[in-house]
Design goal:
Mean pLDDT: 87
Strand order of the largest sheet: 1-2-4-5-6-3
CATH class: Alpha Beta
Strand content: 35-45%
Structural class: alpha+beta
Largest sheet: 6 strands, antiparallel
CATH superfamily: Hotdog Thioesterase
Number of strands: 6
Length: 166
């Protein structure tokens, strides 16, 4: 991962990693995600839980739009936004199932509604339907001004977390 991040981003990533392991002090409900070591993509995207209602299958995730994510037009590249959407929907299932189910995305449909700029990007994910083997999910990304910048729907295969994460 060091090759992908500048020194400043490495310091931010270390700070975020520390924040993600210290979630017990946050004024929000604890989820099955708390205490898990953050994967490299979470560090890269600046992923951190802002709020959650696990029983309702809803989660709010904060991401950091960084300079390294910009396309030639100066906006965050769509593939990065897709990763943020995907990394909002899967955790909604994981939290809702108290860490028993992991998602493997089958398909994801995205609508890009506005350009995404540097700074805080908030993802809100919702479990629409949780079946025995497939989940139907939706998410949106919101910028600091409150504008919706992208929406997604997804179908995801449900995998027992003990098999997927071992």
């Amino acid at each position: 991962m060091r090759g992908l991040l500048t020194t400043g981003c490495q310091q931010e990533a270390a700070t975020l990693a520390h924040m993600m392991t210290q979630t017990a002090t946050l004024p929000r409900p604890l989820t099955a995600l708390d205490g898990l070591p953050p994967p490299p993509v979470a560090l890269l995207l600046g992923w951190h839980i802002l709020d959650a209602r696990p029983e309702a299958g809803w989660i709010r995730i904060g991401f950091q739009g960084r300079q390294e994510f910009l396309n030639p037009a100066g906006f965050i590249q769509g593939g990065i936004l897709a990763a943020m959407l995907d990394d909002t929907m899967g955790p909604a299932v994981f939290a809702m199932t108290e860490g028993s189910l992991y998602t493997a995305t089958i398909d994801m449909n995205i609508s890009y509604l506005a350009p995404a700029r540097l700074g805080l990007i908030i993802g809100e994910g919702q479990v629409v339907q949780l079946g025995r083997t497939v989940a139907f999910l939706e998410a949106k990304l919101i910028d600091e001004a409150g504008a919706v910048i992208a929406r997604a729907t997804s179908a995801a295969r449900l995998v027992p977390a003990d098999k997927a994460l071992s």
